Amino acid sequence: MLEINNLTVSYTSKKNTVNALGPISMGIEPGDIIAIIGPSGCGKSTLLHVLSGIIKGYGGQATLNGARLDPRLHDIGFIPQNFGLLPWRNVEKNCLLSLRIKHKLIDSEQRERIDYIMNKLDINSLRGRYPDELSGGQKQRAAIARAFIMNPDLLLMDEPFSALDALTREEAQELFIDVWNQYKPTTVFVTHSIEEAIYMGKKIVIFSHCPGTIVETIENPLFNTEDLRQNEEFLRLSSHIRTIIKKGWKI
Fold first, then answer.
1. pLDDT score for 227
2. For the residues of 32-100, what is the DSSP string, one character each?
3. Of 26, 32, 51, 229, which is most buried by a Cβ count within 10 Å?
4. Cβ distance 132 to 163 under 8 Å?
5. Which residues contact 99 (CB under 8 A, 6 or more apart)?
6. Beta strand pairing call for 76-79 and 154-158
7. What's the pTM value of the predicted model, to 2 decimals?
8. Mean pLDDT of the chain
9. What is the number of H-type helices and E-type strands within the chain?
C-alpha cells in the first residue's frame, strides 16, 4: 500500500519561502489507479517528483508497503510528459533500459513478458527505430512498454497523453488500460483533462490551487465501463468535477 502522510514541499529562495504542495495525506491500495486533477501550478507534478525520488527535500512521509519510498529499494516507473526516451537508443534498448539500470537478468520468462507487451502495444516492428523516427503515438507506446516491462511496484505518469492529437490520445488511453488491466501496477497519474481522469482513474483526486491540498476524492463508478464516453453518467460526473475544481480555486 502507498501511504502519503502530511506531505509538504516548499522552495526557499534568498527572498522568501514558497509553499508548493500540501499538506497531502492519502492511502492508495495495491493495484489501484489514481487520477490527480486540479488547476495549473497546484503541485500535481511536484507530488510525482517526490514519489519518484526526484525531489528529496520534503516534509511528511511517503511509504510503500511500510518502507520509506525509495527508488533504490522500489521499482518505480515514471512516464513524463515528453515520454523520456533516450534519443541515442533504439526502441528496444529504451524499453529495456530500466531492467539494465536495475541489473535485472533477462531470462526466458522475462523475455516472454517483453515480447508480449511490445506486441500488445504494436511496437514490435519498431524495435530498431530511434525516437526521432517515431510518431508521437509510437513514442508514447514505447514509453508505456518500458514502464510495464520493468514490472513496477509503483507507476507514475505526468500528463502522459497531452502531446498527442485527440484520436491518437484516445487510442493510447485504451491500449494503456488494456495492458494495465493485466498487470495492475499501483498507479498515480496527473492530468489536466477531466475526461481522461474519468476514463482512466479508479479514484479521482481533486487538488485545490497552490499549494495543492485535496479538495475531494471521488470513487469513480465508471471505471472500466465499456463505451464509457457514450455513458450519460460520464457527462454528469464531468460536470460535477468541473464544479469542484472551480470551488477549489477559491479555497
1. 64
2. -EEEEE-STTSSHHHHHHHHHTS----EEEEEETTEE--TTTS-EEEE-TTTT--TTS-HHHHHHHHHH
3. 51
4. no
5. 106, 110, 149, 150
6. parallel
7. 0.88
8. 87
9. 7, 10
In whole angstroms, how far apart are CA 143 and each of 10, 11, 109, 131, 185?
30, 30, 21, 10, 15
DSSP-based three-state secondary structure for 161: coil
CA distances for 215 relative to 84, 194, 197, 250, angstroms: 31, 15, 15, 11
Cα–Cα distances in angstroms (integers) from residue 251 to residues 49, 129, 207, 244, in the given order = 24, 48, 10, 11
The set of residues, in sequence order, having a beta carbon less than 8 Å from that of 140 and lying 6+ positions away, is: 83, 160, 161, 163, 164, 168, 172
Residue 159 to residues 7, 79, 85, 164, Cα–Cα distance (Å): 21, 9, 15, 10
In this structure, the chain runs to a length of 251
Find residue 67's DSSP bridge partners. Answer: 64
Count of other CB atoms within 10 angstroms of residue 2 = 22
Q: Are 27 and 1 in contact (CB under 8 A)?
A: yes
Distance CA 214, CA 9 (A): 14
Relative to beta strand 154-158, strand 186-190 is parallel
- Of the candidate ranges 81-85, 114-118, 211-215, 247-251, the one whose mean pLDDT is the lowest: 247-251
DSSP of 82-149: TTT--TTS-HHHHHHHHHHHTT----HHHHHHHHHHHHHTT-GGGTT--GGGS-HHHHHHHHHHHHHH
Whether the pLDDT of residue 168 is over 60: the answer is yes
